[in-house]
Design a protein that fits this description.
This protein is mostly helical. Helix content is about 75%, strand content about 0%. Helix 9 packs antiparallel against helix 10 and helix 10 runs antiparallel to helix 16. One of its GO terms (cellular component) is plasma membrane.
């Protein structure tokens, strides 16, 4: 029974699929069978004007069939354990796959590159247009597993960050994340409960969404605080709105200020509200250092605290906000609420570090170029599905209907978070992030 319960969670399957890819691709490389799995390396070429066929010059129809079947089979298995109806789910994924091809086609055009329209941003914009101007059926929306896709992508990202980097940079990332998380949470909570007299549980839910890991934190902390379901939904809507705004604004600010890629990634990691949106913003910088810095701050630094915050908030809910007799907060809730995909991220990092431990310089470079190159390509596909899902699920009508009090309370947190994140990244820890991964 425990196994079934464990396999009914998105985090478990994100770890299984992500680590399967890391182990499988690495094994093929070590046993000289890498050419067999090259069919999964679906990357579009650059094209100009109307020469669209240039985008497919190194690809065949079979490449797309193999890639679709590979993920389609995995996701079909997952859908059964997550209680998703198979037919709607596979149809939904098929539509998502076709849309992602369109996204890569647009982003690989020379003009898109000139305006720095990377695939994540294109996917988000395309999703927003379809989500708000097309009448999408509910079965399609119910089959869009945004959080699941981003978790797979984060596990794959672990493979591209060596364990030594996590050890050397993790301390600074966690310290910076702690400062931003604590200040942002209590700013939003104070504004919500003291200035606007909102319910304490609602204030905690808003604060968690703005300070920890966005939608996931709003759900976890909202339930721990015994917030009303409509309050959790409102918090999610506000988080999504600001996450979308920051996807566009943060890269523009970073480039206008001429920030180093490491500094830019750290600022995005402290000031974005959702993993998927933050990855899109970091990727828009166009430097792997920005993605790595963002990941350390957001995933290792902020996301991992969701379990600890859940215990704190659950205790406050029981002892202060909703006093209940004979109710105790178990420390086991930390493990229950802890985002397990972070463990997959760390395991992937450890595995790749072990694989390259005894390789000479030339072999290590070849491993990075081929194995990690393929992992990054698959990661880009998964993240593109994530950004499409975010756009398709974002309804501006619902967000506008939220009401001004919770929105303003959250926005006050943004007003504190954004300059504080810049101060921490560009001044206090500037030397560290400037030399990061150099």
């Amino acid at each position: 029974m425990k196994e079934i319960k464990w396999l009914a969670k998105e985090d478990s399957w994100a770890n299984i699929i992500g680590l399967f890819l890391v182990l499988g691709i690495s094994a093929f490389w070590f046993f000289d069978g890498f050419s067999i799995i090259q069919a999964l390396n679906v990357k579009f070429g650059s094209w100009r004007g109307t020469d669209i066929m240039d985008a497919f010059k190194n690809l065949s129809f079979l490449n797309f069939v193999i890639l679709f079947c590979f993920f389609g089979i995995w996701f079909s298995i997952v859908s059964r354990f997550l209680n998703k109806k198979f037919k709607p789910f596979i149809v939904s994924f098929s539509i998502l796959f076709i849309l992602s091809i369109l996204v890569f086609l647009i982003s690989s055009h020379s003009q898109a590159k000139e305006f720095q329209l990377e695939s994540p941003l294109v996917a988000l914009l395309l999703g927003l247009v379809l989500g708000n101007f097309a009448n999408l059926p509910q079965w399609f929306k119910d089959s869009l597993l945004t959080e699941f896709y981003v978790k797979i992508g984060i596990v794959l990202m672990g493979a591209t960050l060596p364990l030594t980097l996590l050890i050397n940079a993790g301390g600074i990332a966690i310290l910076q994340a702690c400062i931003i998380t604590i200040v942002t949470f209590w700013t939003i909570y104070f504004a919500a409960t003291k200035l606007f007299k909102l319910d304490s549980s609602f204030g905690a839910t808003l604060g968690a969404g703005g300070s920890i890991c966005g939608v996931s934190a709003a759900i976890v902390i909202g339930n721990a605080a015994k917030a009303k379901q409509e309050h959790i939904s409102l918090a999610i809507s506000i988080v999504v709105l600001w996450a979308v705004v920051m996807v566009i604004l943060l890269p523009l600010f970073c480039k206008a200020l001429g920030l180093d890629a490491g500094v830019a990634g750290a600022w995005i990691g402290t000031s974005e509200f959702a993993d998927s949106a933050g990855l899109a913003a970091a990727q828009s910088i166009g430097d792997e250092r920005a993605i790595a810095a963002f990941t350390l701050i957001k995933v290792i630094g902020r996301d991992m605290f969701v379990g600890i915050w859940a215990v704190l908030v659950a205790f406050l809910s029981v002892a202060v906000w909703h006093k209940q007799e004979n109710t105790r907060v178990s420390i086991g809730i930390i493990w229950e609420r802890f985002p397990k995909f972070i463990l997959g991220f760390l395991i992937a990092s450890v595995l790749v570090s072990l694989f390259t431990l005894n390789l000479d310089s030339a072999s290590s470079q070849q491993f990075s170029k081929e194995t990690l190159g393929l992992i990054k390509t698959l990661r880009n596909w998964v993240f593109t599905w994530t950004f499409l899902c975010i756009g398709l699920n974002t309804q501006f009508k619902k967000i506008i209907a939220v009401g001004y009090k919770p929105f303003v309370a959250f926005t006050l947190g943004v007003a504190v978070n954004l300059p504080l994140g810049y101060l921490l990244s560009s001044y206090i820890f500037e030397e560290f992030w400037t030399n990061f991964m150099r």
